[in-house]
């Protein structure tokens, strides 16, 4: 019998206190990586097969333009360094792009990109995302990204229910 204090993955990720703790842990991990990266390319020896990214405009590789195709990120000068508008809120590469290069996998496609290749991970980040759930139309939150991730894994992961 399950205790009343047990959480499902979705409930755990939607809990603000636990979710913020997870974000702090990820931030710490990324700070350690970036400080070590200056000394040596340690990530290339890790042999990561995939990256799953959450975030806001600092990590969005195209989800926002899938939601709002007429936004300014859908045209140059955004993506100018990449020779095309990609939906990045930058004229070039994002930190997640450098991380992908470092672990020697292709850039992550946006989850909402129907033509995306997700063989090496998925980018769930969307520009303007809130850290905590918000009510209202057009408000994207990290909890919505978690919902996308759960949906993605439910449709792509195979497991034996027996």
Structural notes for this entry:
The chain is mainly alpha-helical. The chain has one domain. It has five helices and two strands, in the order ααβααβα. It has a two-stranded parallel sheet with strand order 1-2. The longest helix has 22 residues.
Order of neighbouring strands in the sheet with most strands: 1-2
How far is the N terminus from the C terminus? Answer: 19 Å
Question: β content, as a range?
Answer: under 5%
The count of helical stretches stands at 5
Largest sheet, if any? 2 strands, parallel
Q: Return Rg in Å.
A: 17 Å
Choose one word for the global shape.
globular
Q: How do the helices and strands follow one another from N- to C-terminus?
A: HHEHHEH
Annotation, overall tally of beta strands:
2
Pfam family, one: Lipase_GDSL
GO molecular function, one term: hydrolase activity, acting on ester bonds
Protein name: Lipase, GDSL
Family: Belongs to the 'GDSL' lipolytic enzyme family.
Topology at a glance:
Blueprint: H1 9-14, H2 16-37, E1 51-53, H3 63-67, H4 95-102, E2 121-123, H5 142-156
Parallel strand pairs: 1-2
Keyword list:
single chain, about 160 residues, mainly alpha, two-stranded parallel ribbon, 5 helices, about 35% helix, globular, disordered N terminus, hydrolase activity, acting on ester bonds, SGNH_hydro_sf
Concise overview:
The chain has 162 residues and is mainly alpha-helical. It is built from 5 helices and 2 strands, in the order H-H-E-H-H-E-H.
């Amino acid at each position: 019998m399950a205790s009343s204090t047990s959480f499902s993955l979705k409930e755990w990720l939607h809990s603000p206190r636990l979710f913020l703790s997870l974000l702090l842990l990820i931030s710490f991990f990324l700070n350690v990586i970036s400080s070590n990266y200056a000394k040596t390319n340690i990530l290339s020896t890790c042999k990561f097969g995939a990256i799953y990214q959450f975030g806001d405009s600092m990590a969005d590789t195209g989800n926002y333009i899938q939601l709002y195709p007429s936004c300014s990120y859908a045209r140059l000068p955004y993506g100018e360094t990449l020779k095309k508008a990609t939906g990045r809120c930058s004229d070039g590469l994002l930190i997640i792009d450098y991380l992908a290069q470092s672990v020697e996998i292709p850039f992550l496609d946006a989850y909402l990109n129907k033509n995306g290749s997700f063989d090496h991970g998925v980018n769930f980040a969307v520009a303007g995302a809130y850290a905590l759930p918000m009510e209202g139309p057009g408000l994207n939150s990290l909890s919505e990204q978690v919902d996308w991730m759960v949906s993605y894994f439910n449709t792509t992961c195979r497991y034996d229910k027996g």
